[in-house]
Amino acid sequence: MSGAADFKGKKGITRLINALAYSRDGLHAAWRHEAAFREEILLAAVTIPLALLLAKSGVERALLIGSILLILLVEILNSALEAVVDKASPEMNELAKRAKDMGSAAVLLSLLNAAAIWLCVLWR
User: Fold this and answer.
1) Residue 75 is among the residues annotated as catalytic for this protein
2) Which candidate in 75, 82, 91, 94 is catalytic?
3) Residue pLDDT, tens place only, 54-65
């Protein structure tokens, strides 16, 4: 069984509650330990209300808000990658550096993606 069937019955509800708790813990860890995540939350707190005000359609709202949420998502994945790399390879290692640099590049690309979307949607 997979998908929605996994959440049927008492065991499924317990799994759902556990999954939500793990997600809450992950967001809390990102907030507590990652300055970049806190800065991007501030960016989201400013831009998401702006998106609701400035967008002319639901599709524009979805693009503007989605691009900001993507930044947060990529930042969390980058932070998770960095934590695993630091645990697995605490000493300097070329592969560890490459992995961390690629995670950082992914965050940069998500920021550039958001900027491009905002420009395309708002420049009329």
Assistant:
1) yes
2) 75
3) 999 999 999 999
